[in-house]
Amino acid sequence: MNKKIIQFSLFVVLLFATLAFSQEEYDVKVTQLTDNLFLLIPQVYVAHPTIIASIGPDGVLLVDTGIKETAQVLKKKLDSLGNGNPNIIINTHAHIDHTGGNAFFGDSPTVIAHNILRKRLKSSSFISWEFPDATLPDILIYDSLTIFFNGEEISIIPFEGSHSDNDVIVFFKKSRIAFIGDIMYGFGFPSYDKLSGDVLKYPDVLEKVINYLPEDARIIPGHGHECNLEEFRGYHNILSKTIEAVSEAAFRGRTLEQMQEDKILNAWDSLGQGEIPTNKWIESIVYCLDENRPRKSLVEPLYLALKNNGIDGAVAKFHELKRTAEKEYAFTLAAFNIVTYYLLDRERYEDARKIQTLASEEYPDSWVVFYMLGEIYSAEGDKENARKYFKKSIEIDANNPYISELERMIKEL
């Protein structure tokens, strides 16, 4: 199998780990930005998705809602600031760490998002989250939308194409605060949706954002620290140079492995100290240079087969697609993990184990597979097997980002 195809999305792996550790109640860090604007960051194990709340005489407006497991503690924090029931929710894009809390707030809030987001949340890799229709976007943005709320003119503008095909930014004009979602990932290399995003488009998208925002804008990303426009320009410049360097090397015939061994992005390695390592960023660029890369999610057919024909039907569907449609579907470990989470959430442990056993046959050298098997056994209360697979995960990759957490979990079993 093509190595570029079997590489899994780091975003989904990190998210699953966050969800798996969400049995504890996390705190929400609050920073007051202005009289009415608050920055809220649920202190989940990984990623720390950013949420902005406007709280005032008109009620509560939320920009993004985090993951569903932290929605209750988010509401408690909003209650302490005033009223925890949002009147309006704006979603910056479809990813579950930004939309996962929507359902918790029910059908009362008006939900605003990119014109394609409603469709996205009911299909592709999002279908297994089973969003209730009442919590999907009510108002869809095509060109732009301006609303007035709590004395603030708020503009919502699509800037799609790089991180995903449904990104919007939210600009609070009076406060000069721009919430830009995941088109910036702190000061690290950014992530992207493998099916709808394209890292090659980051330079153009970021340049459009730069041209739109005023010089005194405070820029807040979906993950990471605030920056000003000058710092954002520097970020744009680095991404442009790294994409150019990898593209030129690929044009000269250098392979992904050769570029990584040559450390061709060594000059910008400081950006690779975050969630997206430098080698992963090189891989993302090379992957997006392939115009024939697969565009369909494996999650949707597996989920539908699971619903209609049970676990054996899902396994059979995987083998069928691998045999007949490998060039159409993105065969990633992330797809297995999303389906596994769907099953774990419903306490279907035996079925979850079958999916991850299939994943272990496809990806025998991945620490994530054995970590997931450990999670399944842990949820079942089988401490011996949970310990066994967590240890196996560490043996495969002693440098994985969850080593300390895995060691803690083994001790507590």
Walk me through what this model shows.
The structure is a single chain. Helices cover 43% and strands 15% of the residues. The protein has 413 residues and is of the alpha/beta class. The strands form 3 sheets. The chain has a 7-stranded mixed sheet with strand order 1-2-3-4-5-6-7, with helices on one face.
Topology:
Elements: H1 3-6, H2 10-20, E1 28-32, E2 37-42, E3 51-56, E4 59-63, H3 71-81, E5 88-90, H4 96-99, E6 110-114, H5 117-120, E7 139-141, E8 145-149, E9 152-158, E10 168-172, E11 177-179, H6 202-212, E12 218-220, E13 227-228, H7 229-251, H8 256-262, H9 278-289, E14 296-297, H10 299-324, E15 329-330, H11 333-345, H12 349-362, H13 367-380, H14 383-396, H15 403-412
Parallel strand pairs: 4-5, 5-6, 6-7, 11-12, 14-15
Antiparallel strand pairs: 1-2, 2-3, 3-4, 8-9, 9-10, 10-11, 12-13
Helix pairs in contact: 2-11, 6-7, 7-9, 11-12, 11-13, 12-13, 13-14, 14-15
